[in-house]
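This section describes the prediction task in plain terms. A model, or a person checking by hand, is given the sequence of a single protein chain and must write out its three-dimensional structure as a string of tokens. No templates, partner chains or ligands are provided. The sample shown here is typical of the held-out split.
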Amino acid sequence: MTLPDTHNKTRFVAEYPINASPKILFPYLSTASGLARWFCDDVRYVEGQRFNFIWDRENHYAEIATQRLNKAVRFVFLDDRRQPIADANSLEFSLDYSEVTDEVYLRVVDYSPTVEAEEQQEMWESLVYKLREQVGG
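The expected answer:
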């Protein structure tokens, strides 16, 4: 589901079942080494809860805005000088467990510049496929 907003950004929200426990899955969502294995070309821990996400040799700095162990992490992207900006891009991963289906769901909330909804859906499906390969789920 993609909801347009007034700043040419969209809030993409999707849930994906993943056959792995939150304890196994969470480090892949919240650590530089875990994220580098599936999310982008490389991720480096900078300092003070800040990370450098590298795509196509370009640096994208972000800091952890909120984190709940084995439940959720939210990254807010910074400017080139690693400073907070208004209406910043953000990315949130949260894990939910369904006792009814005995499944873990990864919820992705991607707030970033607008791209075609189908393209964004395909990108996330591909990324989650890579994540599933890493965790065996």
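For orientation: The radius of gyration is 15 Å.
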